[in-house]
Amino acid sequence: MNVVIDNLPLYLEGFGQTLSLLVIAGLAALVVGTIVAVMRVSPVPALTGFAAVYTEVLRNTPLTLVLFFCAIILPYLGSELPYFWCAIIALTAYTSPFVAEALRSGINGVPVGQAEAARSLGLGFGQTVSIVVFPQAFRMVIPPLINVLIALTKNTSVAGAFFVAELFGVGRTLANANGNAVVPVLLAVATFYLLITIPLGILAGRLEKKFVVQR
Amino acid sequence: MSASVLFDAPGPRARRRSRIASVVVIVVVLAGLGWVVFTLAQPRESGGITVPGYFDWSRWEKPVTDPEFWGAVGRGLLNTLQAAAIAAVMALIVGVLFALLRTSPRAAVRVPVTIVLEFVRGMPVLLMMLFILLVASTGAFWAVVLALGLYNGAIIGEALRAGIASLPRGQREAGLSLGLTRLQTKMRIEFPQAFRQMLPIIVAQLVVLLKDTSLGFIVGYNELIRTTMNNLSSFYGNRYLFTLFFITLAIYLTVNLTLSWVARRLARRRSGVVQNPENDAVE
Question: Domain count of chain B?
Fold first, then answer.
């Protein structure tokens, strides 16, 4: 237990790194995911195809390999980013297809009549999607989106193995240094993760009840 | 909603516009890909000497023509599949157990199980692997398998519970009124139906499980990625890193896309029951 208290500043530093990975990669993934989702339902076949391939390839690649791509292949292409930003790019790329799929299933969940009504009022594709379908879809996908963010929180731990000193990285270092106190060290790491994931889970449950559209 | 509701059936002008947009997109994407391939293919300066580009045969020849190399890759892939298979069986068993205990009528069983479940679901699998590895000293293989089995078991358990909750109440009541006990009703009437209904989600979760065996790389289990990116790259030298990455990616995509395709077929066969199963799979 003492090990945990003595190293609290280190833990908090790692927690801060985890949080900033979560916030930056989360926001970026929301933006990229939304763009991909719109492309996926758009009338231009090439956009649809590109979005489909992007989603399938990234969703079927392990995060470890995506991180390898950012840590090894990106420098070959001339990037000189520090590991933190490599991790951000990898997490964004890995999470965005999940965001896109959550949004797409939300769009599919909006009753056809809504779009038909919008179309018969004379709205075009852009207007139908942006002011009729999307606002409704977005409410329905908020709980699944929060689940994606919870998954992202847990996935930031993989970045810890790639030289980013976030929570998992800190935990691993401390566990190696204090072989006799592995259990409290790792339980403390778990607690910090639960501090993020459990409130998010509760929030998802609440919003799910609140936003359920009565039809 | 089918996409065709969102826009009119395109007339000649819209078709032309859409075709132009398609061509523009294809050109942009091809240009991007072309740039990446071109940059990688360029010979580069490294420590004063010029080394060939990444698509040069000299960067591929040594591993690709070496039967030992393919043997090692095969063993890595086998290790990955082995860990995934055992963890999948375990996840299914743990999932049924969790679903059973979580819906127990006794609060003394239900509450602790719920807490454990939340704990397991809220923690990164990687942390669990490290925990099992260091605390239980089981060796890397069992650390990977146990952590994946437990974590995915918790998620499958929740899926099964949702499946049971969505069954019509009459199913359970009919079972009970026929004189079956609660457990018999659950095992013989509710679970088979819930299982069939949630099959797409469960299969999608098993694909995620297969992908997550790659975390074994970090805890020192010689699965595919560790074999190629760590062991083989130190054996052949760093200049083959790109080649090894490329081969690993190709293998993973082949295996996972096949499995996802199976998952989707299962989903389609039961279409109308659960849609878009992949979305409900949690990372």
Answer: 2
